[in-house]
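Consider the following assembly input.
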Amino acid sequence: MEIHEGSYVLLFHTARKKWLMKVTSEKKMHTHLGVIDVSSLIGMKYGSPVRTSEGKIVYLIEPTTYDLIMKSERKTQIIYPKDLGFIAARTGLKNGSKVLEIGTGSASLTTFMASIVKPNGHIYTFDVNADFIAVAKRNLEKAQMIDYVTICEHDPHQGIDIRDVDVAIVDLGDPWTVVDQVYDTLKGSGAFVAICPTMNQLENTATKLKFSRYVDIDCVEMMIRNIEARQGMTRPSTRMIGHTTYLIFARKIMQPSNKEDYKEETAVIREFD
Amino acid sequence: MEIHEGSYVLLFHTARKKWLMKVTSEKKMHTHLGVIDVSSLIGMKYGSPVRTSEGKIVYLIEPTTYDLIMKSERKTQIIYPKDLGFIAARTGLKNGSKVLEIGTGSASLTTFMASIVKPNGHIYTFDVNADFIAVAKRNLEKAQMIDYVTICEHDPHQGIDIRDVDVAIVDLGDPWTVVDQVYDTLKGSGAFVAICPTMNQLENTATKLKFSRYVDIDCVEMMIRNIEARQGMTRPSTRMIGHTTYLIFARKIMQPSNKEDYKEETAVIREFD
Amino acid sequence: MEIHEGSYVLLFHTARKKWLMKVTSEKKMHTHLGVIDVSSLIGMKYGSPVRTSEGKIVYLIEPTTYDLIMKSERKTQIIYPKDLGFIAARTGLKNGSKVLEIGTGSASLTTFMASIVKPNGHIYTFDVNADFIAVAKRNLEKAQMIDYVTICEHDPHQGIDIRDVDVAIVDLGDPWTVVDQVYDTLKGSGAFVAICPTMNQLENTATKLKFSRYVDIDCVEMMIRNIEARQGMTRPSTRMIGHTTYLIFARKIMQPSNKEDYKEETAVIREFD
Amino acid sequence: MEIHEGSYVLLFHTARKKWLMKVTSEKKMHTHLGVIDVSSLIGMKYGSPVRTSEGKIVYLIEPTTYDLIMKSERKTQIIYPKDLGFIAARTGLKNGSKVLEIGTGSASLTTFMASIVKPNGHIYTFDVNADFIAVAKRNLEKAQMIDYVTICEHDPHQGIDIRDVDVAIVDLGDPWTVVDQVYDTLKGSGAFVAICPTMNQLENTATKLKFSRYVDIDCVEMMIRNIEARQGMTRPSTRMIGHTTYLIFARKIMQPSNKEDYKEETAVIREFD
């Protein structure tokens, strides 16, 4: 695919030296590695190399949702790909899904989910902070996802006027406070997800869910480690991420007539059923 | 949503006691917890409880792609949700993507990817084992994804007649042997992924990629741990999965004229750029 | 070294099939692999192979503290080697150390610590449960550590009459309830350790320590993973331990005159100072 | 215990701001936090606070082996406490043990082991690099362990004149090249340990051991994660160590008469026998 005026390009030198930019008729881009004549990129193919004024090579990479999220404008902590991916896989998020999101933040999750559910699915996202919403809008437009997202500046505690939601995801400081409001939005057996950075949030949310007509309550943490793979000298990287967040999943049910039938979830290694 | 004849239902008692079944006019289903009158499920809403003949409660859960994969017929090792999710997130797999898969196996990955790229995207998947292909077909039909997948019984080492692929994923015992063939199928800056259960496979594949016009070579392992979250008594589960596979990611580039410009990937914590 | 009457021997076939026994003139030992003529072991060297009646090979291994702990009689959850080792390394436990232990349990930790601090060091261990104490005594005698341990059947909440302790370690359900009593027993800058299986216990103990004249408060968890190392086919094991316990470390100080000087411990990666 | 002339003191402000020093009649010590009048420390108790010239509080901590190792002079990569501890726990290293060490390096492991095996045990350590040996000597003297260690400037490949060793530990780039020489030094069922930073070293060493009359071959990696424990806000630290080294353990046996009896070690979760 060719680069044209208005295209986004990830200028890639190494994993630590890369820049996301929009191609315009503006003549030059100044980087740590030298100057790049931006107008000359028009008509070039993604994957091509270009030389900076200092003779360094930079590759023209077509940005993926991953790149857009990692380089997005941030007012809040983003949700990282290692967690985004598992949220999609665990909930069965797919093309056509109708999604509710409480806590838009910087829209990293919104962007990712929109890229999957479009063109027939839709994300309804709620936040009360106008600044966050402004940043979220810009990120969604940059990622070309804005058409699949409706941003509502509304406090979800007051109730949420969405119904038949496939997946509801909550990213608030106190997720347990909207469990009941979210319940009403979900279709039967619809998926509930909450982002819980602390153990305390996880504990409170799990407890609320247990007494709120949900089953398959599943609390996890995802850890990712890089491996330096070289012939004869392969070993994991010296440093790694210790923690981003815990995730809690559950599914909405209609309560049985007799409360004692509610079965508490016992610990299982769910990946290896 | 209502259950009708031919619907799939996940009968959920607990995470360890659940069954995936197709609703037919067949009268009964026998489980460890008693007998369920299947025909009576027709017309019921997902999320509803039903009682077995022994009075146990089971919930009618609408199966997600996750459920279908975890309960799929298997002739080969499946790829688990913790890895599926990150593959999607890291490559920017999205609605409309054109995907090449080498090594169909039991189609767990194929199913997951199809659920995301449809209706306009497509998966071209290659395998040489007729038995695996037969199982894959059945799993894809059960998941209603077959329309978005073309299964080719063909040895990829002979060359692959697909072009402009957004994401290519290789699940073979020797992924490095198809790196060149896959290169030709990818669009410029398209994503390459390989499933490498052993360190040796990871090492060989990384080395091949380094000398084969790819950048952003990234080797990772994803670990997942369950947390038993109970008020006043929260702790991680005693056992966890130690390992499923390593994953290696890279992006196709067109080589610069001077080979010394090729920059080796240094180790980074990519999640926290 | 030679085996004699009364020696302990670990009969080792594989990591999963091994038995700890005491050599007596009793004629036979029956195992899954056949019968072993025990009296014939007398005079043999450790490391030698013997054949069972079914012709299987078993090795005569001289039991280490590790073996004795893993095969000990248990009334309570033992503390595992991955945690025992770090407790020793982090506190500087060494030959000659004077140690206080609250909560003797099955004496796995007591045994390990005694093996290090002897012959001049000593462990003073407290428990209120006579059954646990009986088991602990037997384990310590079997490990030949009993001379270096004084077991006190006494409630530590009433006060502890030991002074100038180098290392104090607490293994109770509510460790924060003895922090003050332990404070009095420690020498200046002596080490405090608590075993905290849940995050709640860790949180409560850390909070109590922060307001109780301790510094260098350090909460950790140790994870261990096995690697199956085979030429050309090396990979981590499929399953691993998810969690045994959290550990919390601190050092006793005498408070400065002005309370505001107390500095809260900020998060650090202590291993890589 | 009181501080006197020649004592070592760890001046502790926080985990990231601490200094190890020797108390002399030298008047002042300059730190980031102000000046400390060193001679005034003489006669003070460990655990006491002192004020710097800028009024900051620093605590006088009695250094443990841990502190001495973390603050030691380094010409080579040290072995970290998380690995030191498990080496001791897994091998049954204890008071009185006779230890062989190949590869003295900066003597972090030597120091730790000497602190445990003294006064009757001994470490025989081998290195061929005179610079490393010089640094090792200084570290051992500073830690007051030099009397329990014999440093041999000798190439172990030529053969090692030590016998009846309880624990032999190898820290070389190519540990498999001394497996046979180490075999001769070990007592029957004595413990072998190798430090293997890369998977390749681990693989080669494991393979060599499998064909060299050892059993209970066990390859592991230890991971440590810090938890930020605060009331109502507990969560793991954002960053953690990804990797230091793999460890491989084994025990010496005398070979059975029939080679087919040699049983390959199958994968087990050893901690939970």
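The interface with chain B takes residues 197-200, 225-226, 232-244 of chain C (CB under 8 Å). Ask yourself how this observation constrains the way the partners meet.
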